[in-house]
Amino acid sequence: MRIVEKRQLLSAEEIDRTLQRVAHEIVEKTSGASDLALIGVRRRGVPLSERLAQMIRSFAHVEVPVGTLDITLYRDDLSTIGPQPVVQSTHIDFPVDDRDLVIVDDVLYTGRTTRAAMNGLFDLGRPRRIMLCVLMDRGHRELPVEATFIGRTVDTTDTEIVEVRLREIDGKERVVLVDRVS
Amino acid sequence: MFQRLQHLLGIESLTNEQIVFILDQAKPFQEFQRYPLKKLATLRGKTVALAFFENSTRTRISFATAAARLGADTMNLQAESSSVRKGESLLDTVHTLEAMRPDGIVIRHSSSGAPELVAGRLGIPVINAGDGTHEHPSQALLDALTIRDRKGKLEGLSVTILGDILHSRVARSNIHLLSKFGVQFRLCGPAMWVPREVESLGPNVRRIGRIEEAVDGTDVVMVLRVQTERIHEPALAPEEYILRYQLTPERLRLARPDALVMHPGPMIRGLEIDPVVADGPQSCVLEQVANGLAVRMALLYHLIGGAPVDAPHPAKERSNASD
Asked: Could you give the count of Cα atoms lying within 13 Å of B201 in the half-sphere of its Cβ?
Protein backbone atom coordinates (compact mmCIF):
# COMPACT_ATOMS: atom_id res chain seq x y z
CA MET A 1 0.00 0.00 0.00
CA ARG A 2 1.61 3.26 -1.08
CA ILE A 3 0.58 6.85 -1.59
CA VAL A 4 0.72 8.09 -5.16
CA GLU A 5 0.20 11.66 -6.31
CA LYS A 6 -2.49 11.79 -8.97
CA ARG A 7 -2.70 15.43 -9.86
CA GLN A 8 -2.21 18.93 -8.52
CA LEU A 9 -5.49 20.64 -7.68
CA LEU A 10 -4.22 24.14 -6.82
CA SER A 11 -0.88 25.82 -7.38
CA ALA A 12 0.51 28.41 -4.98
CA GLU A 13 -0.86 31.22 -7.14
CA GLU A 14 -4.28 29.56 -7.36
CA ILE A 15 -4.42 29.12 -3.58
CA ASP A 16 -3.79 32.84 -3.17
CA ARG A 17 -6.38 33.89 -5.76
CA THR A 18 -8.93 31.48 -4.26
CA LEU A 19 -8.40 32.88 -0.77
CA GLN A 20 -8.70 36.44 -2.07
CA ARG A 21 -12.02 35.59 -3.66
CA VAL A 22 -13.25 33.84 -0.50
CA ALA A 23 -12.15 36.81 1.64
CA HIS A 24 -14.25 39.11 -0.55
CA GLU A 25 -17.22 36.74 -0.27
CA ILE A 26 -16.93 36.78 3.52
CA VAL A 27 -16.98 40.57 3.64
CA GLU A 28 -19.89 40.70 1.21
CA LYS A 29 -22.03 38.10 3.00
CA THR A 30 -21.44 39.57 6.46
CA SER A 31 -22.16 43.22 5.53
CA GLY A 32 -18.60 44.37 5.89
CA ALA A 33 -17.26 41.80 8.37
CA SER A 34 -18.30 43.84 11.40
CA ASP A 35 -18.88 41.80 14.56
CA LEU A 36 -17.15 38.89 12.90
CA ALA A 37 -14.40 36.61 14.08
CA LEU A 38 -12.47 33.85 12.31
CA ILE A 39 -11.75 30.60 14.09
CA GLY A 40 -8.92 28.58 12.55
CA VAL A 41 -9.16 24.84 13.22
CA ARG A 42 -5.76 23.31 14.02
CA ARG A 43 -3.62 22.76 12.21
CA ARG A 44 -3.96 24.08 8.69
CA GLY A 45 -7.08 26.13 9.37
CA VAL A 46 -4.87 28.39 11.48
CA PRO A 47 -2.65 29.91 8.76
CA LEU A 48 -5.66 30.04 6.43
CA SER A 49 -7.65 32.09 8.94
CA GLU A 50 -4.70 34.40 9.52
CA ARG A 51 -4.29 34.97 5.79
CA LEU A 52 -7.99 35.69 5.36
CA ALA A 53 -7.88 38.22 8.22
CA GLN A 54 -4.85 39.87 6.63
CA MET A 55 -6.60 40.08 3.26
CA ILE A 56 -9.76 41.52 4.80
CA ARG A 57 -7.68 44.08 6.70
CA SER A 58 -5.94 45.06 3.50
CA PHE A 59 -8.88 45.56 1.11
CA ALA A 60 -11.77 46.27 3.51
CA HIS A 61 -9.76 48.01 6.28
CA VAL A 62 -11.60 46.00 8.92
CA GLU A 63 -9.81 44.30 11.81
CA VAL A 64 -11.29 40.82 12.17
CA PRO A 65 -10.19 38.96 15.32
CA VAL A 66 -8.72 35.51 14.80
CA GLY A 67 -8.80 32.61 17.24
CA THR A 68 -7.38 29.10 17.04
CA LEU A 69 -9.31 26.02 18.03
CA ASP A 70 -7.97 22.57 18.78
CA ILE A 71 -10.70 19.99 18.33
CA THR A 72 -8.86 16.94 19.72
CA LEU A 73 -10.95 16.78 22.90
CA TYR A 74 -14.16 16.93 20.86
CA ARG A 75 -13.41 14.19 18.35
CA ASP A 76 -15.88 11.33 18.10
CA ASP A 77 -13.30 8.66 17.23
CA LEU A 78 -10.97 8.79 20.23
CA SER A 79 -11.77 5.38 21.66
CA THR A 80 -11.04 3.66 18.38
CA ILE A 81 -7.78 5.09 17.13
CA GLY A 82 -5.20 3.78 19.59
CA PRO A 83 -3.04 6.09 21.72
CA GLN A 84 -4.67 9.41 22.53
CA PRO A 85 -3.66 12.19 20.15
CA VAL A 86 -1.67 15.05 21.60
CA VAL A 87 -3.87 17.96 22.70
CA GLN A 88 -2.89 21.43 21.52
CA SER A 89 -3.99 24.77 22.88
CA THR A 90 -7.10 26.64 21.95
CA HIS A 91 -6.61 30.43 21.91
CA ILE A 92 -9.77 32.41 21.61
CA ASP A 93 -9.20 35.52 23.64
CA PHE A 94 -12.36 37.35 22.71
CA PRO A 95 -15.90 36.53 23.84
CA VAL A 96 -17.90 34.37 21.42
CA ASP A 97 -21.30 35.36 22.80
CA ASP A 98 -23.53 37.10 20.26
CA ARG A 99 -20.82 37.09 17.67
CA ASP A 100 -20.77 35.86 14.07
CA LEU A 101 -18.06 33.23 13.76
CA VAL A 102 -16.53 31.70 10.67
CA ILE A 103 -14.86 28.34 11.26
CA VAL A 104 -11.91 28.05 8.86
CA ASP A 105 -10.42 24.71 7.84
CA ASP A 106 -8.45 23.34 4.92
CA VAL A 107 -10.63 20.41 3.81
CA LEU A 108 -14.30 19.58 4.37
CA TYR A 109 -14.85 15.82 4.14
CA THR A 110 -17.18 13.87 6.45
CA GLY A 111 -18.19 16.93 8.43
CA ARG A 112 -17.15 15.41 11.77
CA THR A 113 -14.41 17.96 12.34
CA THR A 114 -16.95 20.74 11.90
CA ARG A 115 -19.30 19.09 14.39
CA ALA A 116 -16.39 18.83 16.87
CA ALA A 117 -15.45 22.48 16.23
CA MET A 118 -18.99 23.61 16.96
CA ASN A 119 -19.00 21.65 20.22
CA GLY A 120 -15.78 23.39 21.16
CA LEU A 121 -17.24 26.79 20.43
CA PHE A 122 -20.40 26.07 22.44
CA ASP A 123 -18.19 25.38 25.48
CA LEU A 124 -17.02 28.95 25.22
CA GLY A 125 -20.38 30.67 24.91
CA ARG A 126 -23.30 31.17 22.59
CA PRO A 127 -22.34 32.57 19.20
CA ARG A 128 -25.05 34.38 17.27
CA ARG A 129 -24.17 32.58 14.08
CA ILE A 130 -21.60 30.03 12.94
CA MET A 131 -20.50 29.77 9.32
CA LEU A 132 -17.97 27.47 7.75
CA CYS A 133 -15.19 28.39 5.33
CA VAL A 134 -13.04 25.71 3.69
CA LEU A 135 -10.37 25.82 1.05
CA MET A 136 -11.42 22.45 -0.41
CA ASP A 137 -14.74 20.60 -0.28
CA ARG A 138 -14.14 16.96 -1.22
CA GLY A 139 -17.65 15.62 -0.63
CA HIS A 140 -18.52 12.36 1.23
CA ARG A 141 -20.42 14.03 4.01
CA GLU A 142 -21.43 11.73 6.91
CA LEU A 143 -23.21 14.48 8.85
CA PRO A 144 -25.58 17.22 7.67
CA VAL A 145 -22.85 19.88 7.41
CA GLU A 146 -22.40 22.41 4.62
CA ALA A 147 -19.83 25.11 4.05
CA THR A 148 -20.86 28.74 3.62
CA PHE A 149 -17.66 29.71 1.83
CA ILE A 150 -15.86 27.22 -0.39
CA GLY A 151 -12.57 27.69 -2.20
CA ARG A 152 -12.80 24.74 -4.58
CA THR A 153 -15.06 21.70 -4.81
CA VAL A 154 -13.58 18.42 -6.02
CA ASP A 155 -15.03 14.96 -6.56
CA THR A 156 -13.03 12.26 -4.79
CA THR A 157 -13.16 8.51 -4.28
CA ASP A 158 -12.98 6.80 -0.89
CA THR A 159 -9.31 6.01 -1.16
CA GLU A 160 -8.18 9.41 -2.40
CA ILE A 161 -6.91 12.11 -0.06
CA VAL A 162 -6.86 15.86 -0.66
CA GLU A 163 -3.54 17.11 0.68
CA VAL A 164 -3.24 20.79 1.40
CA ARG A 165 0.33 22.00 1.84
CA LEU A 166 0.82 25.49 3.24
CA ARG A 167 4.12 27.31 3.55
CA GLU A 168 3.60 28.14 7.24
CA ILE A 169 3.39 24.45 8.16
CA ASP A 170 4.76 22.40 5.26
CA GLY A 171 7.27 24.76 3.67
CA LYS A 172 5.49 24.14 0.37
CA GLU A 173 2.38 25.73 -1.11
CA ARG A 174 0.05 23.51 -3.18
CA VAL A 175 -3.01 21.28 -3.03
CA VAL A 176 -2.69 17.80 -4.49
CA LEU A 177 -4.92 14.79 -4.91
CA VAL A 178 -3.24 11.58 -3.81
CA ASP A 179 -4.43 8.01 -3.85
CA ARG A 180 -3.59 4.85 -1.95
CA VAL A 181 -2.65 2.06 -4.31
CA SER A 182 -1.58 -1.47 -3.48
CA MET B 1 11.84 6.37 21.55
CA PHE B 2 8.92 7.85 23.46
CA GLN B 3 7.23 5.25 25.63
CA ARG B 4 3.47 5.53 25.99
CA LEU B 5 2.57 5.31 29.69
CA GLN B 6 0.23 2.58 30.82
CA HIS B 7 0.21 3.37 34.55
CA LEU B 8 1.47 6.22 36.69
CA LEU B 9 2.89 4.45 39.72
CA GLY B 10 5.75 6.80 40.51
CA ILE B 11 8.08 9.45 39.17
CA GLU B 12 11.30 7.52 39.70
CA SER B 13 10.90 5.37 36.59
CA LEU B 14 9.74 8.14 34.24
CA THR B 15 12.04 9.59 31.62
CA ASN B 16 12.56 13.33 31.26
CA GLU B 17 10.74 13.11 27.94
CA GLN B 18 7.68 11.53 29.52
CA ILE B 19 7.62 14.14 32.30
CA VAL B 20 7.91 17.07 29.85
CA PHE B 21 5.18 15.48 27.74
CA ILE B 22 2.76 15.42 30.68
CA LEU B 23 3.61 19.00 31.67
CA ASP B 24 3.10 20.17 28.08
CA GLN B 25 -0.18 18.30 27.83
CA ALA B 26 -1.41 19.97 31.02
CA LYS B 27 -1.31 23.38 29.27
CA PRO B 28 -4.48 23.03 27.20
CA PHE B 29 -6.23 21.77 30.33
CA GLN B 30 -5.05 24.82 32.27
CA GLU B 31 -6.78 27.01 29.67
CA PHE B 32 -9.86 24.79 29.84
CA GLN B 33 -10.39 25.73 33.50
CA ARG B 34 -11.29 29.24 32.30
CA TYR B 35 -14.06 28.12 29.93
CA PRO B 36 -17.63 29.07 30.88
CA LEU B 37 -18.74 25.49 30.23
CA LYS B 38 -16.29 23.08 31.84
CA LYS B 39 -17.70 19.80 30.59
CA LEU B 40 -16.18 17.69 27.85
CA ALA B 41 -17.44 14.45 26.35
CA THR B 42 -13.92 13.16 25.75
CA LEU B 43 -14.10 10.36 28.33
CA ARG B 44 -17.83 9.88 28.13
CA GLY B 45 -18.78 6.32 28.94
CA LYS B 46 -15.57 5.68 30.85
CA THR B 47 -15.60 4.98 34.57
CA VAL B 48 -12.76 5.95 36.85
CA ALA B 49 -12.60 4.19 40.21
CA LEU B 50 -11.35 6.47 42.99
CA ALA B 51 -10.10 4.00 45.57
CA PHE B 52 -9.00 6.08 48.55
CA PHE B 53 -7.97 3.89 51.45
CA GLU B 54 -6.49 6.87 53.24
CA ASN B 55 -8.32 10.03 54.14
CA SER B 56 -8.00 12.68 51.49
CA THR B 57 -10.31 15.47 50.55
CA ARG B 58 -8.16 17.62 48.28
CA THR B 59 -6.57 14.96 46.08
CA ARG B 60 -9.78 13.00 45.82
CA ILE B 61 -11.83 16.05 44.86
CA SER B 62 -9.16 17.04 42.37
CA PHE B 63 -9.23 13.66 40.61
CA ALA B 64 -13.03 13.48 40.81
CA THR B 65 -13.39 16.94 39.26
CA ALA B 66 -10.82 16.12 36.58
CA ALA B 67 -12.76 12.98 35.64
CA ALA B 68 -16.11 14.78 35.67
CA ARG B 69 -14.85 17.64 33.49
CA LEU B 70 -13.63 15.08 30.98
CA GLY B 71 -17.12 13.55 30.99
CA ALA B 72 -16.20 10.35 32.81
CA ASP B 73 -18.14 8.75 35.62
CA THR B 74 -16.49 7.93 38.94
CA MET B 75 -16.82 5.15 41.49
CA ASN B 76 -16.03 6.51 44.91
CA LEU B 77 -14.49 4.05 47.32
CA GLN B 78 -13.42 5.36 50.68
CA ALA B 79 -12.31 2.63 52.99
CA GLU B 80 -10.81 2.85 56.43
CA SER B 81 -7.89 0.54 56.75
CA SER B 82 -6.73 -0.50 60.20
CA SER B 83 -3.10 -1.58 60.50
CA VAL B 84 -4.17 -5.12 61.34
CA ARG B 85 -6.39 -5.82 58.36
CA LYS B 86 -4.44 -3.79 55.80
CA GLY B 87 -3.31 -6.54 53.42
CA GLU B 88 -6.61 -8.37 53.52
CA SER B 89 -8.68 -5.31 52.72
CA LEU B 90 -6.62 -4.37 49.72
CA LEU B 91 -6.88 -7.73 47.97
CA ASP B 92 -10.57 -8.01 48.76
CA THR B 93 -11.20 -4.62 47.28
CA VAL B 94 -9.14 -5.42 44.20
CA HIS B 95 -11.48 -8.32 43.47
CA THR B 96 -14.54 -6.18 44.05
CA LEU B 97 -13.20 -3.57 41.67
CA GLU B 98 -12.47 -6.18 39.01
CA ALA B 99 -16.10 -7.24 39.16
CA MET B 100 -17.33 -3.70 38.56
CA ARG B 101 -15.00 -3.23 35.56
CA PRO B 102 -13.83 0.36 35.77
CA ASP B 103 -11.71 1.70 32.92
CA GLY B 104 -9.04 2.96 35.25
CA ILE B 105 -8.30 3.28 38.92
CA VAL B 106 -6.85 6.08 41.01
CA ILE B 107 -5.61 4.64 44.28
CA ARG B 108 -4.36 6.10 47.52
CA HIS B 109 -3.23 3.66 50.21
CA SER B 110 -1.24 3.79 53.41
CA SER B 111 1.04 0.96 52.25
CA SER B 112 3.96 1.80 50.01
CA GLY B 113 3.74 -0.34 46.89
CA ALA B 114 -0.02 -0.89 46.99
CA PRO B 115 -0.64 0.71 43.55
CA GLU B 116 2.01 -1.52 42.01
CA LEU B 117 0.33 -4.58 43.52
CA VAL B 118 -3.01 -3.50 42.08
CA ALA B 119 -1.48 -2.72 38.66
CA GLY B 120 -0.11 -6.22 38.51
CA ARG B 121 -3.51 -7.75 39.26
CA LEU B 122 -5.89 -5.72 37.10
CA GLY B 123 -5.57 -5.17 33.39
CA ILE B 124 -6.52 -1.51 33.60
CA PRO B 125 -4.50 1.70 34.03
CA VAL B 126 -3.56 2.53 37.62
CA ILE B 127 -2.70 6.02 38.87
CA ASN B 128 -0.96 6.33 42.23
CA ALA B 129 -2.56 9.10 44.30
CA GLY B 130 -0.17 8.52 47.18
CA ASP B 131 1.14 5.27 48.62
CA GLY B 132 2.52 5.19 52.15
CA THR B 133 5.71 7.19 52.31
CA HIS B 134 6.73 6.13 48.81
CA GLU B 135 5.45 8.43 46.04
CA HIS B 136 2.77 10.96 45.12
CA PRO B 137 3.49 11.41 41.42
CA SER B 138 0.65 13.74 40.42
CA GLN B 139 1.68 16.12 43.21
CA ALA B 140 5.25 16.27 41.92
CA LEU B 141 3.97 16.88 38.40
CA LEU B 142 1.73 19.75 39.46
CA ASP B 143 4.56 21.20 41.52
CA ALA B 144 6.89 20.99 38.53
CA LEU B 145 4.30 22.64 36.30
CA THR B 146 3.90 25.47 38.82
CA ILE B 147 7.66 26.01 39.02
CA ARG B 148 8.09 25.83 35.25
CA ASP B 149 5.29 28.34 34.67
CA ARG B 150 6.65 30.82 37.21
CA LYS B 151 10.37 30.37 36.58
CA GLY B 152 10.33 29.50 32.90
CA LYS B 153 12.36 26.33 33.44
CA LEU B 154 13.25 23.55 35.86
CA GLU B 155 16.93 23.10 35.01
CA GLY B 156 19.54 24.05 37.54
CA LEU B 157 17.23 25.59 40.11
CA SER B 158 17.84 25.44 43.84
CA VAL B 159 14.96 24.00 45.86
CA THR B 160 14.62 23.89 49.65
CA ILE B 161 12.22 21.50 51.35
CA LEU B 162 11.27 22.18 54.96
CA GLY B 163 9.70 19.76 57.38
CA ASP B 164 9.16 16.04 57.84
CA ILE B 165 11.08 14.67 54.86
CA LEU B 166 11.24 11.14 56.25
CA HIS B 167 7.50 10.55 56.08
CA SER B 168 6.80 12.64 53.01
CA ARG B 169 5.94 10.98 49.71
CA VAL B 170 5.50 14.49 48.33
CA ALA B 171 9.15 15.25 49.11
CA ARG B 172 10.31 11.98 47.58
CA SER B 173 8.39 12.39 44.34
CA ASN B 174 9.54 16.00 44.01
CA ILE B 175 13.15 15.01 44.60
CA HIS B 176 12.91 12.22 42.02
CA LEU B 177 11.36 14.51 39.42
CA LEU B 178 13.38 17.67 39.84
CA SER B 179 16.68 15.81 40.24
CA LYS B 180 16.22 14.55 36.69
CA PHE B 181 16.46 18.21 35.63
CA GLY B 182 19.57 19.02 37.60
CA VAL B 183 17.88 20.69 40.57
CA GLN B 184 19.93 21.05 43.77
CA PHE B 185 18.10 20.24 46.97
CA ARG B 186 18.53 21.48 50.52
CA LEU B 187 16.45 19.56 53.07
CA CYS B 188 15.85 20.99 56.51
CA GLY B 189 13.79 19.90 59.48
CA PRO B 190 13.96 18.26 62.90
CA ALA B 191 16.89 15.83 62.95
CA MET B 192 14.82 12.67 63.37
CA TRP B 193 12.72 13.66 60.34
CA VAL B 194 15.70 14.45 58.13
CA PRO B 195 18.12 11.52 58.63
CA ARG B 196 21.38 11.28 56.72
CA GLU B 197 19.84 8.69 54.38
CA VAL B 198 17.73 11.38 52.66
CA GLU B 199 20.89 12.58 50.93
CA SER B 200 20.85 9.41 48.85
CA LEU B 201 17.44 10.28 47.36
CA GLY B 202 19.11 12.22 44.58
CA PRO B 203 22.51 13.14 43.16
CA ASN B 204 22.44 16.70 44.54
CA VAL B 205 20.66 16.53 47.89
CA ARG B 206 22.04 18.01 51.12
CA ARG B 207 20.79 18.04 54.67
CA ILE B 208 21.01 21.47 56.29
CA GLY B 209 20.57 21.91 60.03
CA ARG B 210 19.62 25.56 60.25
CA ILE B 211 16.67 26.96 58.31
CA GLU B 212 18.51 30.23 57.63
CA GLU B 213 21.21 28.39 55.77
CA ALA B 214 18.69 26.14 54.03
CA VAL B 215 16.73 29.00 52.47
CA ASP B 216 19.65 31.32 51.74
CA GLY B 217 19.59 32.27 48.05
CA THR B 218 17.16 29.49 47.12
CA ASP B 219 14.77 29.63 44.13
CA VAL B 220 11.93 27.62 45.66
CA VAL B 221 10.89 26.85 49.23
CA MET B 222 8.58 23.87 49.61
CA VAL B 223 6.99 23.74 53.04
CA LEU B 224 5.65 20.41 54.27
CA ARG B 225 2.81 20.06 56.71
CA VAL B 226 3.57 18.72 60.18
CA GLN B 227 1.82 15.38 59.84
CA THR B 228 0.53 14.56 63.29
CA GLU B 229 -1.57 11.66 61.98
CA ARG B 230 1.41 9.88 60.52
CA ILE B 231 3.63 9.73 63.58
CA HIS B 232 2.73 8.85 67.11
CA GLU B 233 5.08 11.09 69.00
CA PRO B 234 5.75 14.60 67.73
CA ALA B 235 9.49 15.10 67.36
CA LEU B 236 9.17 18.57 68.78
CA ALA B 237 6.63 20.58 70.70
CA PRO B 238 4.79 22.96 68.32
CA GLU B 239 6.37 26.03 69.95
CA GLU B 240 9.82 24.66 69.30
CA TYR B 241 8.96 23.70 65.72
CA ILE B 242 7.75 27.23 65.08
CA LEU B 243 10.85 28.70 66.65
CA ARG B 244 13.28 26.60 64.62
CA TYR B 245 11.55 25.68 61.37
CA GLN B 246 8.61 27.95 60.63
CA LEU B 247 8.89 29.83 57.35
CA THR B 248 8.54 33.42 58.51
CA PRO B 249 8.75 36.58 56.38
CA GLU B 250 12.22 37.28 57.82
CA ARG B 251 13.49 33.84 56.85
CA LEU B 252 11.87 34.07 53.42
CA ARG B 253 13.78 37.31 52.80
CA LEU B 254 17.00 35.29 52.87
CA ALA B 255 15.88 33.48 49.74
CA ARG B 256 16.04 35.05 46.28
CA PRO B 257 13.63 38.00 46.01
CA ASP B 258 11.65 36.08 43.36
CA ALA B 259 11.70 32.78 45.23
CA LEU B 260 8.53 30.72 45.19
CA VAL B 261 6.76 29.49 48.32
CA MET B 262 4.96 26.20 47.81
CA HIS B 263 2.93 23.91 50.04
CA PRO B 264 1.14 20.70 49.06
CA GLY B 265 -1.69 21.52 51.46
CA PRO B 266 -3.53 21.60 53.67
CA MET B 267 -1.56 24.26 55.49
CA ILE B 268 -1.49 24.64 59.25
CA ARG B 269 -1.23 28.43 59.39
CA GLY B 270 0.97 29.53 62.22
CA LEU B 271 2.73 26.20 62.52
CA GLU B 272 4.96 25.32 59.60
CA ILE B 273 4.16 28.54 57.74
CA ASP B 274 3.53 32.11 58.83
CA PRO B 275 0.11 33.34 57.55
CA VAL B 276 1.73 36.44 56.02
CA VAL B 277 3.98 34.20 53.91
CA ALA B 278 1.09 31.84 53.07
CA ASP B 279 -0.92 34.74 51.66
CA GLY B 280 1.99 36.73 50.30
CA PRO B 281 2.86 37.43 46.62
CA GLN B 282 5.47 34.67 46.53
CA SER B 283 3.00 32.00 47.60
CA CYS B 284 1.92 29.64 44.81
CA VAL B 285 -0.47 27.55 46.86
CA LEU B 286 -3.63 28.37 44.90
CA GLU B 287 -1.85 27.96 41.58
CA GLN B 288 -0.73 24.54 42.74
CA VAL B 289 -4.35 23.55 43.31
CA ALA B 290 -5.44 24.83 39.89
CA ASN B 291 -2.48 23.16 38.21
CA GLY B 292 -3.36 19.93 39.99
CA LEU B 293 -6.66 19.84 38.16
CA ALA B 294 -5.00 20.45 34.80
CA VAL B 295 -2.31 17.81 35.37
CA ARG B 296 -4.85 15.24 36.49
CA MET B 297 -7.05 15.91 33.46
CA ALA B 298 -4.03 15.39 31.22
CA LEU B 299 -3.20 12.14 33.05
CA LEU B 300 -6.74 10.77 32.85
CA TYR B 301 -7.02 11.80 29.19
CA HIS B 302 -3.84 9.99 28.18
CA LEU B 303 -3.95 6.98 30.47
CA ILE B 304 -7.64 6.16 30.66
CA GLY B 305 -8.93 7.65 27.43
CA GLY B 306 -8.50 6.05 24.09
CA ALA B 307 -8.29 2.47 22.95
CA PRO B 308 -6.72 -0.04 25.36
CA VAL B 309 -2.93 -0.33 24.95
CA ASP B 310 -3.23 -3.88 23.71
CA ALA B 311 -6.35 -3.43 21.58
CA PRO B 312 -6.11 -5.92 18.71
CA HIS B 313 -6.85 -3.75 15.69
CA PRO B 314 -7.39 -0.09 16.52
CA ALA B 315 -9.21 1.62 13.65
CA LYS B 316 -6.96 3.70 11.42
CA GLU B 317 -7.39 7.46 11.58
CA ARG B 318 -9.54 8.76 8.74
CA SER B 319 -7.72 10.49 5.96
CA ASN B 320 -8.19 14.23 6.07
CA ALA B 321 -8.88 14.04 9.82
CA SER B 322 -7.82 17.41 11.22
CA ASP B 323 -4.19 17.17 12.24
From this structure: 32
